[in-house]
Prior knowledge:
Layout: H1 3-17, H2 20-41, H3 53-76, H4 80-94, H5 103-117, H6 125-135, H7 142-153
Helix pairs in contact: 1-2, 2-3, 2-4, 3-4, 5-6, 5-7, 6-7
Amino acid sequence: MGLKKRISTGLKQAMKDRDTLRLSTLRLINAAIKDGEIALRGGEEGDQRELSDADVLAILTKMVKQRHDSARAYEEGGRLELAEKENAEIAVIEAYLPAQLDEAAQAKAIDDAIAETGAESLRDMGKVMGVLKGKYAGQMDFASVGPKVRAQLS
């Protein structure tokens, strides 16, 4: 079952369960997916392209990152109830993301990507990151992986 279909099924189930937090979060996800499809269309009326699962994963990852940033800001501002809401939304979104790779698996993935691209210096970092993003979208935090790749290439 595709990711969009899983989200749609989850939305219907949240309606039946009257789970307001889950329902509102899944509606936000659907809205973001629709926005992505509209942007993909490029304004042509009859063109009905759909986002791939990789595109949907990128949207979900971005949404999680935004909520982490918001939760941190709310905590710093002393608004703990809003931070808790953001963290609850993160949990709903992460249910649709693949499991995150552990440190050992990340290190192996980095080594494999460096070997695959033949990277030898920092100039090749973009190639390595491109391979990692292609293969492991949604499975690793690329903000934390970047310094590890940089360290291995320098």
